[in-house]
Amino acid sequence: MKHQKTILEALPDAISSIFLPPVSFDDLPEDTKIETRIALSLTRSLPVLRDSFKVLAESTRLVALVVDLFGVEAFDVAKEFGVLSYIFFPTTAMVLSLILYLPELDEKFSCEYRDLPEPVKLPGCVPVHGSDLIDPIQDRKNEVYKGVLHCIKQYPLAAGIMVNSFMDLEPGAFKALKEGEGKPPVYPVGPLIQSGSDGGVDESECLRWLDKQPNESVLYISFGSGGTLSHEQLNELALGLEMCGQRFIWVVRSPHEKAANSTYFSVHSMKDPFDFLPKGFLERTKEMGLVVPSWAPQIQVLSHGSTGGFVTHCGWNSTLESIVHGIPMIAWPLYAEQRMNAVLLADDLKVALRVKVNDKGLVGHKEIANYARGLIEGEEGKLLRNKIKELNEAAGKASSQEGSSTKSLAEVTQLWKRHQK
After folding, report:
1. 55, 242, 288, 381: least surrounded by Cβ within 10 Å?
2. Among candidates 383, 388, 279, 377, which has minimal Cα distance to 328?
3. How far apart (Å, rounded) are the C-alpha atoms in residues 98 and 120?
């Protein structure tokens, strides 16, 4: 809530916010999938959304409704009020390609996608192994998969899809999406990221510590606001950081044994994450690393000159922040579409090293140490750094006043203005 409040307070005065009441999930089993919870949060909000539209329509000329990738059930409300429906797609054009291709994939194959003998070839994208496709489609017998298919079939009803990526980052995917028949217009409008963080940043322990470190020498480790590791994996990561000999900042969370996305739709564990670290780890690494519980000012850390690498879960917001600030990555995907993002980063863009898990589903401490050394001081790390500097420049151009993404977003707003007349 603090994070949301910060964003809302930073909005221009011309943008008003309307808060819909929270949705109750008390009737759902505890193990209900996150995708189901997200979908229900929308469908259960539709009556209130419709009422809000009625009130707005009395004093305002409504032009367009923009929903996220799960929000297409609200298209019916938009239609009632004669407004255009748009989708804001917060991740990659590569994932959007999969989404739009999925009905065809569903008809073509009967097995689980992870069992496909050959990688899936999406239009304009590098091949993706079935096991790397997005989480919600990994179990075709599950209700979540059926829900995804139902959702996707409404995508063609959109007047357009805005994607939080940019043309020079995914030229092949965007070209294929724009040329595809029977698909809504696609508008690359990224990179859209936060420009800063909430209060107290200047006094942050992280930034004071970074100020004392050599240029591009620090490895930053964070698995996002929702990512968690198992206790065993947490220990392997700690041992790997200790072994690698590199400077680091590690945002550590209490472990969770069942779900890598356990902190979504739930409060963070009240247990001290430091209690789960190997005995003596903090003392042994105090000269080379800084371990902080739960949160760090990520944008300020990534934009700091001392930061030389980012161990990330490949959530798209974090990925874009790393690209915008020119920081090469170690890709450690956990859930959702993150494995596909890792494929894009490691196999296509060549700006990340992707971790490999062993037979136990773990990334071992020796491998972690090798990844860290390779990224910060190895030859491969230099190549990744040079490549991401190029993308850093391309990202800046795309979002500049005359950039491709700025023009793309302006094209959408012009359509809205014409619809208003």
Report:
1. 55
2. 388
3. 9
